[in-house]
Design brief:
alpha+beta, about 40% helix, about 180 residues, about 15% strand, Nucleotidyltransferase, domain 5, two-stranded parallel sheet, three-stranded antiparallel β-sheet, globular, 7 helices, 5 strands
Length: about 180
């Protein structure tokens, strides 16, 4: 599961944080976590898009979310973050899940291209968890967040954990609908 926090909604958006988790599809247990904070300067260097409307939206969020996005401490170069994400993913045939592939995945693929790197997945391995939510009759906006690692909205790693928990619930809903015993 991959999630981003950005300063734009364009395909070439500036990426400020990348969160990813590996999980077991049989029991939805998290097996490994990845989180990187990226410098604004490296986004500028790679000509990534900044949008004033998105920046203003970030300024309206709670102080924890703003701190995570705007604090300059512990950040690395975009190119280095993408290389580390590639190492984390490892296998180019790994299934890549995102909460809307036309946002996170498109932005990441654009960033890999801008940095002269290959995306570490094949296009046929990309999955959209929103489809599972829909089939499982689950509204993510109404889904109660678990007390995850960071417990906050708009934190890429915390959002990955929430998306996985919601996916598990949606799959349970699907199973319950398909195998109702009367």
């Amino acid at each position: 599961m991959i999630d981003l926090e950005t300063l734009s909604t364009a395909n070439n958006a500036s990426i400020l944080t990348i969160g990813a988790i590996k999980f077991n599809r049989n029991d939805f247990k998290i097996t490994k976590k990845f989180y990187k904070r990226i410098t604004k300067e490296s986004n500028k260097y790679y000509d990534r898009h900044f949008d004033e409307t998105t920046v203003n939206w970030w300024n309206s969020q709670d102080k924890e979310a703003k701190k995570e996005i705007f604090d300059s401490k512990d950040r690395i170069n975009l190119n280095a973050a993408l290389q580390e994400l590639s190492i984390f993913i490892g296998n180019s045939r790994a299934k890549i899940w995102a909460n809307g592939v036309c946002f996170d995945i498109n932005i990441l693929e654009s960033a890999y291209e801008a940095c002269g790197l290959d995306a570490p997945w094949k296009f046929w391995c990309v999955r959209d968890v929103r489809t599972i939510y829909d089939i499982g009759n689950l509204n993510l906006n109404e889904f109660k967040r678990k007390n995850n690692l960071l417990g906050q909205h708009h934190n890429a790693l915390a959002d990955c954990e929430t998306q996985l928990a919601a996916m598990e619930q949606a799959m349970d809903n699907i199973y319950d609908r398909c195998f109702v015993v009367e």
